[in-house]
Specification:
Two copies of one chain form a homodimer. Chain A is an alpha+beta fold. A three-stranded antiparallel sheet of chain A has the order 1-3-2. In chain A, strand 2 and strand 3 form a beta hairpin. In chain A, helix 2 crosses helix 4. Chain A starts with 21 loop residues before the first helix and ends with a helix. The model of chain A has no long low-confidence stretch (mean pLDDT 95).
DNA sequence: TGGAGAGATCGACGGCTATCGATGGAATGG
DNA sequence: CCATTCCATCGATAGCCGTCGATCTCTCCA
């Protein structure tokens, strides 16, 4: 086997081709940022495994965080399009979004 | 079909079971945080598609960012265990890490 | 041996974010 | 109509992060 590194001369650097479209990158990054938090990743895991929608008060009971913080994290997941919310009386029920990009769905299948 | 939301009484919230081990969560979050940046995600995409190691000077030429910033991003990927580096003369060549967790490999297959 | 190029590190700065307490709005029940 | 409960939002604060210029180290070559 040969050396793995290609030949090169000083002062000459050629940019590699960008394999991904800019819009796709930003879209992926938005989802990744939403998932790149321990609390939110666990929230998504719980929702993905739950057959029924989960009341957000149960998350408040599950995590050692204040109620506004839990609400804030869930809002992040909502803004990223990962979860849907439905109100029932004084309660708010969250579930995994029904219309997930196939790429996002595959991501969650790997992660949680 | 019945109502989707379970019955509930006021003042009673039961925490749902945590589906993932804490260590697994933190490990995934570390990788997700490394990928949750447009520059780094594109870097990984370029490395994944490249048969040969890529000189970091080519990344500096590709992105509209300063050389320290490119070096900083690559260091983040290194710390997350996503890339390997090999020095050759005055140049530094990066490639996708050979020993990737199966989960991480699957993640990259979905993303890039 | 000294100059030049490549790359990592340092220090600083601005912006984003996770967190909290306090507040406000909506629905429920007395 | 009022108290209670749930939940979202607001305002503030501390810590993290992306970015840069400056600097340092290392290698190569004239």
């Amino acid at each position: 086997m040969k050396s793995a590194v290609p030949d090169r001369v000083k002062g000459v650097c050629s940019p590699p081709a960008m394999p991904m479209a800019l819009a796709k990158v930003d879209q992926s990054v938005e989802v990744l940022k939403a998932l790149a938090d321990p609390t939110r990743l666990q929230m998504v895991g719980i929702l993905k495994r739950s057959a029924e929608p989960v009341c957000i008060c149960d998350f408040t009971a599950a995590f050692d965080l204040s109620q506004p913080t839990i609400s804030h994290h869930m809002a992040k997941l909502r803004e990223a399009g990962l979860v849907d919310v439905s109100k029932a009386g004084i309660w708010a029920y969250y579930r995994l979004a029904s219309r997930l990009e196939p790429k996002t769905r595959a991501l969650l299948d790997v992660l949680v």
